[in-house]
Design a protein that fits this description.
Amino acid/polyamine transporter I; 18 helices
């Protein structure tokens, strides 16, 4: 358990130091925010700081920080160190600067941020890529909470031909439609505090239970193959890099998060709330990932659950009920169900906003919001039916979701880098470039080798990944300097 504790210290101490540094680099001030300058009663609505933070946490924390770590801990206790380091220098930094740049630029959504700090070709590709990811998020975050509710809360079989399965999906679907269309403070702003309380009970309850029950956690200096679970063999056989970083995803970094911080940029009363709302809430998600990684390792080591990545959903129920008992376990399961639902609704809301902004469709009219949402929901329904009806449908869906989620972050790191060049923060461009280069290597290597990708042998995939990372850094530095020079020249002409 010492490795787990060391990881938590790295997470919280590192976040306190690096979060403050990120804030200093950005420089929040007292200017009026878009929530006031563009207030429309629908998407631009001033809300309290604690509510923005809670909404952002629930928006970004789907099943990723639970299912990902449950599968990722099979690589061994190295996960307890890798998750916090990646979180503070990658994921939390990504969320903070994405949200703050959108906030300062008038509450823009991510497609507009990408358009402003890149070019038309990159923007067009991003729009398509991001839209596909958000559709996948919407489908995944109906499928996973629906199945967990059906099989582990209500005791149904969750089968494709069971009426109960589709009734539960339908209830989630209706909620998503309401949350997607109605003003943000009418539904999301009121119901999320309740969801937040359930979430906190779930995460904190499991965390306390790990210590009270004395869960046997493998240490990083132990023999990883000494027990019944052969973590060492799994680590060696499954290519820790890049597989771990695709699998764990949201607890370390998630490109999806930038689409959610952009939504909250329209409801913040002050720029100075950004560190708590964006950076610290990603750190909380890292804590959730750490807790579930430890909980899973505990039940694996105790022999209460087979250590198998394909049984990750079943492991959730074992962890909850073993630690918190039948009643507490059900409440904790509700917290797990809440996470994806509160990410799915705002994913589809973000998609509506992005499409509306791109096509210049006014969203003040309820009729226009419903019309746009209807098209989006039909597409989500098609993906959901495929995933449920096909024997390997969900596995295919999840793999594409996980890879595209990480790949999307590269666009945010690109925009943050160019923004730093243009705003005179050139000496800090290493902040987005380091995680950007790393995840270029990870995502390119993965898709080059993967069965859902190009089937290239590992050696070739690694070479391609290194080349892609080097090209990513070189092109961004060149482009950033070019944009900075053009801006300086224009400023000189104006003067």
């Amino acid at each position: 358990m010492i490795t787990f504790i060391i990881g938590l210290v790295i997470l919280f101490v590192g976040a306190a130091l690096y979060g403050k540094f990120c804030e200093k680099v950005f420089g929040p001030d007292d200017r009026k925010t878009p929530a006031y300058t563009k207030e429309d009663g629908v998407d631009y609505v001033p809300m309290r700081g604690w509510k923005n933070s809670l909404i952002n946490l629930l928006n970004i924390a789907g099943t990723g920080p639970i299912l990902g770590p449950i599968q990722g801990i099979l690589f061994g206790p190295i996960a307890f160190i890798t998750i916090p380091i990646g979180n503070i220098i990658g994921g939390a930094m990504h969320d903070y600067f994405s949200g703050m740049i959108c906030l300062r630029d008038g509450g823009t959504q991510m497609p507009d941020m990408i358009r402003k700090y890149s070019n038309r070709g990159v923007y067009t590709f991003y729009q398509i890529f991001c839209s596909l990811l958000l559709l996948l998020v919407g489908a995944v975050f109906i499928y996973t909470p629906g199945d967990i509710a059906a099989t582990q809360v209500f005791g149904f079989d969750g089968a494709v031909d069971s009426v109960s399965t589709w009734v539960i999906y339908g209830v989630i679907f209706v909620y998503y439609l309401i949350a997607t269309v109605f003003p943000i403070d009418k539904i999301i702003g009121r119901i999320y505090p309740i969801f937040g309380a359930i979430l906190l009970f779930s995460a904190v309850g499991v965390f306390i239970g790990i210590f009270v029950l004395g869960f046997p956690l493998t240490e990083i200096w132990d023999n990883w193959n000494a027990g019944s679970v052969l973590y060492g063999d799994y680590f060696s056989a499954n290519h820790f890099i890049p597989i771990f970083f695709i699998t764990v995803a949201c607890g370390i970094l998630s490109g999806f998060h930038s689409t959610q911080t952009a939504i909250i940029s329209r409801t913040m009363k002050s720029e100075k709330q950004g560190r708590m709302t964006f950076y610290n809430m990603m750190v909380v998600e890292g804590f959730i990932a750490m807790v579930w990684a430890a909980g899973a390792m505990g039940v694996y080591n105790l022999g209460l659950q087979e250590a198998n990545a394909s049984l990750a959903t079943a492991t959730i129920g074992v962890v909850c009920k073993h630690i918190l008992g039948p009643v507490g376990g059900i409440i904790a399961l509700l917290g797990v169900i809440v996470l994806p639902i509160t990410s799915g609704d705002t994913a589809l809301r973000a998609l509506r906003l992005a499409v509306a902004d791109g096509l210049h469709i006014d969203q003040k009219s309820t009729k226009k919001r419903l019309g746009l949402a209807a098209v989006i929901f039909v597409l989500v329904a098609v993906i959901l039916v495929f995933a449920k009806s096909n024997a390997d449908g969900f596995n295919i869906l999840w793999r594409y979701f996980a890879w595209s989620n990480q790949s999307l972050s590269l666009f945010a790191f690109l925009a943050i880098t160019v923004w730093m060049f243009e705003t005179g923060r050139t000496k800090f461009v290493w902040m987005p470039l380091i995680p950007g280069a790393w995840y270029t290597f990870v995502t390119v290597t993965y898709i080059a080798n993967a069965q859902i990708g190009f089937h290239i042998p590992w050696l070739g995939a690694y070479i391609i990944g290194v080349a892609a990372a080097a090209a990513y850094v070189a092109v961004l530095i060149w482009y950033g300097k070019k944009r900075s020079a053009i801006k300086a020249k224009r400023a000189g002409k104006v003067a």
